[in-house]
Amino acid sequence: MPEETTSIDYVMEAASGPHFSGLRLDGRMPSSATAAAASSSADSTLTPDFLPNQPFVIGVSGGTASGKTTVCDMIIQQLHDHRVVLVNQDSFYRGLNPEELERVHEYNFDHPDAFDTEQLLECTMKLISGQGVHVPIYDFKKHQRSSDSFRQVNASDVIILEGILVFHDQRVRDLMNMKIFVDTDADVRLARRIRRDTMERGRDINSVLEQYAKFVKPAFDDFVLPSKKYADVIIPRGGDNHVAIDLIVQHIRTKLGQHDLCKIYPNAYVIQSTFQIRGMHTLIRDRDISKHDFVFYSDRLIRLVVEHGLGHLPFTEKQVVTPTGSVYTGVDFCKKLCGVSIVRSGESMENALRACCKGIKIGKILIHRDGDNGKQLIYEKLPKDISERHVLLLDPVLATGNSANQAIELLIQKGVPESHIIFLNLISVS
Asked: Residue 310 sits in which domain range?
């Protein structure tokens, strides 16, 4: 990448906090200046004073082939959040020793002792504390864990623990914020298990039925069904019960609440993360990305930020007549608007603003920074009537916040009310 983008690339690579805007890192913030930003995931905190909430841990239990995984997948899809991870208890089966392998048909895979609960507990606690973990991969045909591969699971906002016996150990239960039991008819579960074990795990029907009668059903009666009493929510019919899943997702959203920064600063707005946004953030952080792709995906993200910021401008009601002669009541855009870019990085947002606002006036501010504290206004060229306009202040990367502070103070000196300043920012770091 060109030399001028090195600092931006470094900041993007270092960015590990929530992506927000409008926060004055010296502890001050305009009382009514509005801010908008593109959101992404976070692996660490902004400052020690703004520690994120602990993850919301959900336990999903139920009989074999009851539809637990289907329920988990539906919850993940409806949350539309990349920061949701699924941890399957099946991954923590103990590998069988040679003696057990010789008599594998007599081994009870549905007994609590078949699982390495200590490792499951350790991995869950690490995820809750914000650490990534290596989840083992279990081979159901060889009845062994893979020795040379694992599944990398990173810290997330929501952790879902799924398995027939995740409610059995009280230590694991105590980590859960919500416990869900998937209740499905025994005949349906048996039919699903036969299909799964024959097609996915290479077993024949007779061995599946024998195992079910000898181990699965007794274990369900002895261990799984009694754990149903610990559930906060019981879902009949599993994944077919869309109403129950919708209510659960709504409850999770309520518990997660809005972004922590938005709770502290009511005039800060964070764009809700989606797989599209997360994917584009992943691309622009890749050190091997080409310059062309970096510019392309950065422009897409910047366009989202600009569009979101425009949504915070005042609108007036307006009626128009449609081609069919009917009257449509809509809104009219704010007329007195301009952009101001903080040179140099702010200029990268100008094209997106021009694409959204035809003929918009754009001013420039250049601030010299000497270390983290020194700052000096070098150049400014602003519309003469800027005090009468709403201002979109452009700066894609917020590091110390000194330039943003200086720019906001200059606009206020020029007569722009704080309530008329919207600071648009792509990535913010501590």
From this structure: 3-39+259-428
Give the whole-angstrom CA distance, residue 330 versus residue 326. 13
| pLDDT tens column, 103-149 | 888 889 999 999 999 999 999 999 999 899 999 999 888 889 988 88
Q: Is there a domain that residue 135 lies in?
A: yes
Q: Mark 64-85 as b/e (b = at least 16 C-beta within 10 Å).
A: bbbbbbebbebbbebbebbbbb
Same domain as 231, residue 92: yes
What digits encode the pLDDT tens for the residues 18-77? 333 333 233 334 344 555 554 433 332 222 222 345 788 999 999 988 999 899 999 998
Q: Are 301 and 68 in contact (CB under 8 A)?
A: no
How far is 161 from 61, CA to CA, in rounded Å?
A: 8
What is the CA 363 to chain-centroid distance, rounded?
35
Q: Would residue 173 count as lying in a domain?
A: yes
Tell me which of 256, 284, 308 is where a domain ends: 256
What residues does 331 pair with on adjacent strands?
317
Distance, CA of 383 to CA of 365 (rounded, Å): 12
